[in-house]
Specification:
heterodimer, A: MetI-like fold, globular, B: 307 residues, alpha/beta, Rossmann fold, 12 strands
Chain lengths: 328, 307
């Protein structure tokens, strides 16, 4: 019990210091960014806005204060649970993140589950057929994927399935020109397939290569030799001793891969104009929406941290070797 | 008729040395040994000389790049690879060296139960645990939680619970204290008394002498002598091979005289008798070819001048 408390305590301290560091760094980066938020906000109408009006907008947004003061004002309201108002959406940041996250969540869950499952199976298949043609093909496929940029894969799928075959819509989360209440589940699904597929395909390589190597190690281990000496063979052997020993590291790795999932989602959503967190992040960055960008940075930090925490927790709770040694 | 007979067993490995050049290393050559029902035979040799491969060859679990020649006969029937696959775990079992041979994520109880061949596995496992003084709590432990002595008893109980006819123990003693070793001696004798043929593969000559009926001395990939335990006495006058004699004299409780030189490596074996370079009595004839086996005073020896 004491171990669990100290485990949680350590994690909380780590999270708080991480969040602080991340927000300071992001704030410094943004305040040095060449993008002028007022110009980005007003856009083409800039010619019609005089210097007095500009000053008034800056005053209204608090942009005339020194960066340190801005940061502390922002920081103290964050501590009270207020992430501020997005400049481009003119709505509270939390609301926008919540709305966009729901869209992204479906996308990321599908991609995460698919890539994990496919990667795991491919890895096992490759390890069982080590150095045979099946293994070579899987390895070649994984190395190619690992070197493939997400946006490129997205464009490729877009070209093949949306433009040439016309199986799926070209982009967006829902059909254009349809009222929200008229959007069917089929519409939502057909819009999510391509971005989810892009993310899954790119995410496979990591898990597959890791699982392959791990299973190869396990298969050459002494306990597999002894199991064979006891007459175990074939699928029983792999199932009983192989899968048991490789699934935990694979799951841990896959949870720890949340950062890549989020990064991939940013690119995939941009390619497919999918209205999720990723797209919001790009928008906030390009248009200098500091509150939204900071909110997103904090949120994504929490998201990735949660992934890593889950990975730690699972190996902590499931792996008997991680538990306290019980005296006998 | 012996339960297990090994005739002219040779094991070699092929591997790629540089680029596509294949290199074959013969690790065991022309090895002969046999074990009767109710008998304990110890194969004694120095560590790292390839003794374990003998066990793996009998069970047919050598790696893919190994090639095996010679004959292994079990119960009067020659063991083909297919026959080995049928018998391993049922009639021929191995007691592995250490706890590392157990699945790290599987509870001890279930692992022991996988070795049970007849009847209710859980009942058989509980009974064997009682016999080896393993508390019921041990069932629920994972291998990393076992002490050295407990691990040894668990590994042995797996062999016993399978009720096999042939038990091969691979290095059963390293790192164990005297009490546990004593316990192991008794358990192996019990196994033999119950009708199993037991093969101990070990570098621990003292343990072998205390436990076994026959000692097969393994040197540079082959057996140079097979002698009944009673021959290991006095100054070793009854022993047949110069290496065995030297080994006996090297023991601390005897004369404690070390043997000069070291065992040749598998890929640098001399043409003739493998012990010739270290032998005081070696002649030119010894360097010509490997001495044939000959039977002598109820044992076997590979030496031109053995008397």
């Amino acid at each position: 019990m004491r171990m669990i408390f100290s485990f949680i305590g350590r994690k909380v301290i780590r999270l708080l210091s991480l969040l602080f560091a991340i927000s300071v760094i992001t704030f410094i980066l943004i305040s040095h960014s060449p993008i002028d938020p007022i110009q980005a906000y007003i856009g083409a109408d800039m010619m019609r806005v005089g210097p007095e009006q500009r000053e008034k907008i800056a005053e209204n947004w608090g942009l005339d204060e020194p960066p340190a003061e801005q940061f502390f004002r922002w920081g103290s309201s964050v501590l009270q649970g207020d992430l501020g108002t997005s400049m481009i959406y003119r709505r509270p940041v939390t609301e926008i993140i919540y709305e966009k996250f729901l869209h992204s969540l479906a996308l990321m869950i599908i991609a995460w589950l698919l890539s994990g499952l496919i990667g795991f199976i491919l890895g096992i298949a490759a390890a069982m057929k080590k150095d045979k043609w099946a293994d070579r093909i899987i390895k070649w496929y994984c190395y190619t994927l690992a070197a493939t940029p997400t946006f490129w894969m997205g464009l490729l799928l877009l070209m093949i399935f949306a433009v040439w075959l016309e199986w799926f819509p070209i982009g967006m989360g829902v059909p254009a020109g349809v009222l929200t209440e008229n959007v069917t589940l089929a519409d939502l699904i057909s819009h999510i397939v391509l971005p989810a597929l892009t993310l899954s395909i790119v995410g496979v390589a990591n898990v597959a290569l890791h699982t392959r190597q791990k299973l190869i190690d396990v298969l050459s281990s002494e306990y597999i030799l002894f199991a064979r000496a006891r007459g175990e063979k074939g699928f029983t052997l792999i199932w009983r001793h192989g899968i048991r020993n490789i699934s935990l590291p694979a799951i841990t790795l896959h949870f720890a891969g949340f950062s890549e999932l989020f990064g991939g989602a940013v690119l995939a959503e941009q390619v497919f104009s999918y209205p999720g967190l990723g797209q919001a992040t790009v928008e906030a960055g390009l248009r200098g929406d500091v509150p939204l960008l900071l909110g997103l940075v904090i949120f994504s930090t929490l998201f990735v941290f949660a992934g890593n925490l889950l990975a730690d927790l699972i190996s902590f709770l499931v792996d008997p070797r991680m538990k306290e040694r019980r005296p006998v | 008729m012996s339960t297990l007979e090994i005739h002219d067993l040779s094991i070699s490995f092929t591997k790629y040395s540089k680029g596509l050049r294949q290199e074959t290393t013969q690790v065991i050559h022309n090895l002969n040994v046999s074990i009767n029902k109710g008998e304990i035979v110890a194969v004694v040799g120095s560590s790292g000389s390839g003794k374990s491969l003998l066990a793996h060859a009998i069970l047919g679990i050598l790696p893919g790049n190994a090639s095996v020649k010679g004959r292994i006969v079990y119960d009067g029937q020659e063991l083909t690879e297919q026959r080995k696959a049928e018998l391993r775990g049922t009639e021929i079992v191995i007691v592995p060296q250490s706890v590392k041979f157990l699945d790290p994520l599987m509870k001890i109880g279930s692992q022991v139960q996988t070795s049970v061949r007849k009847g209710n596995a859980a009942v058989a496992q509980k009974k064997i645990f009682e016999k080896y003084k393993l508390k019921p709590l041990v069932e629920k432990l994972f291998p990393f939680q076992l002490s050295g002595g407990m691990a040894r008893r668990v590994l042995l109980s797996m062999a016993v619970v399978s009720e096999a006819n042939v038990v091969i123990a691979d290095e059963p003693t390293p790192g164990l204290d005297a009490d546990v070793i004593k316990e192991a001696e008794i358990s192996f004798r019990e196994l033999a008394d119950n009708g199993s043929a037991v093969m101990l593969i070990t570098h621990d000559i003292e343990f072998a002498l205390k436990t076994a009926d026959k000692i097969a001395v393994f040197y540079a990939g082959t057996t140079v002598e097979v002698a009944p335990v009673s021959d290991f006495s006095g100054k070793g006058e009854n022993l047949r091979h110069p290496y065995t004699k030297a080994l006996w004299r090297a023991l601390p409780q005897n004369e404690f005289i070390p043997i000069k030189g070291s065992q040749p490596l598998a890929n640098h074996l001399p043409k003739g008798c493998p012990f010739a370079p270290r032998c005081e009595n070696a002649t030119l004839d010894c360097l010509k070819e490997m001495p044939e086996e000959k039977m002598l005073r109820g044992g076997m020896v590979r030496c031109l001048y053995a008397t």
